[in-house]
Structure formats: structure tokens, C-alpha cells
TrEMBL record:
This is Myo-inositol-1-monophosphatase. It comes from Amycolatopsis rifamycinica. GO terms for biological process: inositol metabolic process; signal transduction. The lineage of its organism: Bacteria, Bacillati, Actinomycetota, Actinomycetes, Pseudonocardiales. Keywords: Hydrolase, Magnesium, Metal-binding. Mg(2+) binds at E66, D82, I84, D85, D213. The keyword Protease does not apply. It comes from the Bacteria. The keyword Flavoprotein does not apply. One of its GO terms (molecular function) is inositol monophosphate 1-phosphatase activity. Its cofactor is Mg(2+).
């Protein structure tokens, strides 16, 4: 077994443990952690459990999680963990949420697992091995016309400078909404990216780049034959400003739309 295969087994087991926790906690507490930003005690329970598991299984690899920050070994490899991506959905009983785990090596992810605990699907990928949903290979969209495209757009910005950031988002929505088949705002980057990999969405425009939100999905999309770029069209890395995932046939049209929207607000 290769190292990537062994680490993918670790990631797969980790997100399975997370699913058990999420599905076993019908009652939970919700609290605010910032401007219109929520956390539940299930988020922290999942993160604590997975940190313990990952530290035991891969003590040489550190962890960066959304709720607890960075811990464990330093160096160029680390796990990026979102214990529940789509917490606002989860807190309201909306079943669109996911647990996202990626192994980041340098600037890119090399192992990924995203599980959707209420939809019964686990997406996995290892670099060079393809992308899979419940063990079946998946492929990104081959659409070439924007009029055929269903596009997911990430949440509006909150917190500092939100008004300025959202000006460009509104322009982008107006542009794409007039030309794409449909626009969707699902409230979870993990599902946005997994569904681009699975061909359910033709593009996902996540106009920020928290590694715990995006790095697993980025690998899934690339291994499924899609493209993932930064907002300016350059290749996506862990340090990118945005995460733009798209079937390769729509890459230019999507990047051009981003250029128009952000060019107006510069």
C-alpha cells in the first residue's frame, strides 16, 4: 500500500467517526462566534474527537481545524479539518452540511475526504488516483456553454469590510444570473466542491479560501478532471485568495465574469 493510500484510509475512517458523532447528537447547543457566525457543541465535539484520532494515527502530521486552530507537529504536511461545514444549515435542521478533511503537503492537498452525513455520501481522492463517491469514480462537468451551467456561489461576506466585498459579489451574481442556467447558494463549500467533482454542479465560486473549507474539495475537483483557480485565473494553492472550481470547458467564461465584477470595484 502506498503512503497516500494509507493516509486516505485514515481520512476515510476519521470522517466516518465524525458522521457517527453528528448523527448521534439530535440535541445540541448553538452559540455565536462572530458577526452572524455560529458554532455548535457538535462542531467542537467532532473536531476534538478527530484531533485525538489523527494525533494517534499520524503523530508526525499536525492539524489545522476551524474551531481549535493549529496543533501537533510542524513542518510542510498538515491535516485541514472542518468538523461541520455548513453549520448554519446544520443548526436549522437543513441537511446540507459536510465534514471536510484534507492532507495538505506544501501548497496543495494530496488526500481528501468529504462526507455528507445526512445524504449518505462520502467523497474521497488521493493525488493521481481519481475522485470517488462511495467508491464509484466521478467526473467533472464537460459543459462548454454558460447557458447550460448550474453554478454555486459562496455565502456573502460578513464582518470587517463586508459591504465592500459584497459589492463585487452582487455584480457577479447579476452577470452570471443573466446568462447561466441556474445559480445556487447552498451554504457549504464542502458540498459545492464535491458536487463540482461529481458533475452535479458545473462551477462553484467560493470567494474566500479558508483551508479547512476548501482544500479537500480542491483535490476532489482536480482528480475528477475539473479546474480550480484563484480569482484572477492563476492556479489555486493553499495561499490563494479565492477558490474557483469549474469544469474545464467553462474556465475562461467564469474567470472573465470575475474580472468584470472585481474590475468595477477596484
Amino acid at each position: 500500500m502506498t503512503e497516500h493510500a494509507a493516509l486516505l484510509d485514515v481520512a476515510r475512517e476519521a470522517v466516518a467517526k465524525a458522521t457517527e458523532i453528528v448523527r448521534s447528537r439530535p440535541d445540541f447547543s448553538v452559540s455565536a462566534k462572530g458577526d452572524r457566525d455560529l458554532v455548535t457543541d457538535v462542531d467542537t465535539a467532532v473536531e476534538d474527537a478527530l484531533r485525538e484520532f489523527l494525533a494517534a494515527e499520524t503523530p508526525e502530521i499536525g492539524v489545522l481545524g476551524e474551531e481549535r486552530g493549529r496543533s501537533g507537529a510542524g513542518g510542510g504536511r498538515w491535516w485541514a479539518l472542518d468538523p461541520i461545514d455548513g453549520t448554519a444549515n446544520f443548526a436549522r435542521g437543513i441537511p446540507l452540511c459536510g465534514i471536510s478533511l484534507a492532507l495538505v503537503d506544501g501548497e496543495h492537498s494530496t488526500v481528501a475526504a468529504i462526507t455528507l452525513p445526512y445524504l449518505g455520501v462520502t467523497y474521497t481522492a488521493a493525488r493521481g488516483e481519481g475522485a470517488f463517491a462511495n467508491g464509484e469514480r466521478v467526473g467533472a462537468s464537460t459543459a462548454t456553454e454558460l447557458s447550460d451551467a448550474m453554478i454555486a456561489v459562496g455565502d456573502f461576506a460578513i464582518g470587517e469590510l463586508a459591504e465592500e466585498k459584497n459589492r463585487a459579489r452582487l455584480l457577479l451574481l447579476s452577470d452570471l444570473g443573466a446568462r447561466a442556467q441556474k445559480i445556487r447558494m447552498l451554504g457549504t463549500a464542502a458540498i459545492d466542491l464535491a458536487w463540482v467533482a461529481d458533475g452535479k454542479l458545473d462551477a462553484a465560486l467560493i470567494l474566500s479560501n479558508n483551508p479547512w473549507d476548501t482544500m479537500a474539495g480542491v483535490l476532489l475537483v482536480r482528480e475528477a478532471g475539473g479546474a480550480v483557480v484563484d480569482r484572477d485565473g492563476s492556479e489555486h494553492t493553499v495561499g490563494s485568495a479565492a477558490t474557483i472550481a469549474v469544469g474545464a470547458g467553462l474556465r475562461k467564461e467564469i474567470v472573465d465574469a470575475l474580472d468584470r465584477a472585481y474590475g468595477v470595484v477596484r
